[in-house]
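Both lines are retained for reference:
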Amino acid sequence: MIPQSQLSKLSNRLLKKNGGRRIPEHILERDYCIAWFLTGLARTPLRDKLVFKGGTALRRCHFADYRFSEDLDFTLLQPHTFEEIKQASNITFQFSRVDSVSHKNSYTFYLLYEGPLPATSTPKEIKVDITINECVHFDPEELPILKSCDEFTDLPDHATILVYSLDEIAAEKTVALHDRARTEPRDLYDIWYLTEETGSVDLDDCIAAIHAKLAHRNKTPQEVSKEFQVKEPRLMKTWKTRLSAQMANLPEFDKAYRAVKRMFRQANIYS
């Protein structure tokens, strides 16, 4: 394990490099421990059964300088019980608890971790969500787990896991932004980054995947066409509070929202 001083050094370096807001050391610690969890996962039979996805997958496998994230999201490729997953993991993270909220299509639980920072009065936990039945449109990619930060000196090289492609992540984020039950500003940020900020994804290439994922949820594009607009006030309200600690320079909400709204219109995703 790296010493605590490495996290302080990293926080100072990122501030000097990027300006803006200082990334808290507890965020950096969680990022470091997530990288170690994924490295452990890559050494178990689960590496062929789970596909890594979401914002943390963007940071850990696609973009080394992406926003920091707080949880782990996977899709299960084959039917397995929760107990089978626990037994197959064999990872040196302590199981903490199952989520108190019931989930029909996922296993959601928390792992305890101990990192370089001193223990706190509340448990340090990482939330893990494993989707049981999902429509995966594009082939998963086997990608290396990125070290991301030079200060994470003890992370081994060459560990790989199965990961959603950028188009798959963009399609899933688009569907999430049209889910009435979900309001997560990180979904907006991620799709903005992929389509507008970096141009890594062309939504025209994701239309079939978006429609397939909606159909998997028994929804049509026409049914959800107003949801993104209705969600605007709620996304705006939580934009800074949810995201400001995850990056040094958070774009203005209006900039991201308007760009994504334009992208949806240009791609004609509701037809």
About this structure: The chain has ten helices and seven strands.
